[in-house]
Amino acid sequence: MAKQKKIFNFRPLFFGFLALVLSISTAKFLFEGDLKNIIFIAVCLLALCIFCVFTKKFVSLLVLICFFGLGLGLQPLGIMLFEGKNYVGEQEVFAKVSDDISYSTYGNAATIVLKDVFINGKQDKNIRLSLSCDNKQQIQAGDIISFSAPVIKAKIFELGEFKSFYLRDGTPYVAEVDIADVLVHGNKLNADESFRLKIKDVLFSNMGSDNGSVAFAILFGDKSDLSADTRLIYNSAGILHILAVSGLHVSFLF
User: Fold this and answer.
1) What pLDDT, on the 0 to 100 scale, is given for residue 57?
2) Helix axes 35-54, 58-82, angle to 10 degrees
3) CA 37, 42, 44, 45 torsion: positive or negative?
4) Is the confidence at residue 1, as pLDDT, over 50?
5) Cβ neighbours, 10 Å, residue 57
6) Hey, which residues does 97 pair with through a beta bridge?
7) Which of 62-71, 110-119, 234-243 is predicted least confidently?
8) pLDDT for 6-46, tens place per residue?
9) Up-side HSE of residue 92: CA atoms within 13 Å toward CB?
10) How far is CA 158 from CA 131, 151, 161, 162, 246, in A?
11) Strands (E), 46-163
12) Rounded to an integer, what distance in angstroms lies between the CA atom of residue 56 and that of residue 69?
């Protein structure tokens, strides 16, 4: 008789995969202070270790422990590499406005991701800029700007909250400035930025801001235009991954 196929494959690589999933989740919950989920993962990890011991799968146990430790250290290591320098006082900033611009309800304030940043003449990492302005026409994607302002390291963890958008946008710095203190030295949009903005205009004009922002996020993985309510709905439903460019989306294109 042919042997019945096993539902689960308990090779060491399988345990390594489980360990990575558990460790990355643990790191996230540790930073968020989510005690319930940390306890749940600890119970799962203990159960896997007991299973390996009773079934004498000692190689799998070793792989489980090693991969869990590796995954647990990846996020702190990534954050250490992500962090910027300590700047004291006002700094001279020269940078380019990316196409990641989010305006307030009345359009008199904007949150902008600056790239190709030079601080005091030396190239550095991206900055998340809070800009006070009179209207949306005063600053455009692709603008080359300069200003003087304090440049502060972003607080990724604050009051038990993990602000992942800093990592997502690669912005270890934050700055705040008024439009009156900003000099614009011209505009230079890259081909990819121009393409995204044209697609965005088409989506928003035909679908409205709410549906357009969802369609734009699905196409380009840019969730900056999503409202807090929309993001919460997708997150609560467990389908937030739909709004991120992934291998599944790329396979659809192929």
Assistant:
1) 86
2) 150
3) positive
4) no
5) 18
6) 114
7) 234-243
8) 555 667 888 888 888 888 888 777 766 778 888 998 898 99
9) 3
10) 22, 18, 5, 7, 29
11) 90-103, 109-119, 122-123, 127-132, 143-150, 152-153, 157-158, 161-162
12) 21
Q: Which helix (H) or strand (E) holds 177?
A: strand 173-178
Token pair in block for residue 235: 């997150």
Using one digit for the tens of pLDDT, what is the confidence trace for 138-158?
888 899 999 999 999 998 877
Q: Return all residues near 142 (Cβ < 8 A) that are at least 6 apart.
A: 96, 97, 99, 187, 188, 189, 190, 193
* Residue 135: Cβ-neighbour burial (10 angstroms; 0-12, 13-18, 19+): exposed
Report the share of the chain in percent with pLDDT over 70: 89
Which residues are CB-neighbours of 225 under 8 A, at least 6 positions away?
102, 200, 209, 212, 213, 216, 217
Q: For the chain, how many residues are written?
A: 254
As a whole number of angstroms, the distance between CA 62 and CA 69 comes to 11
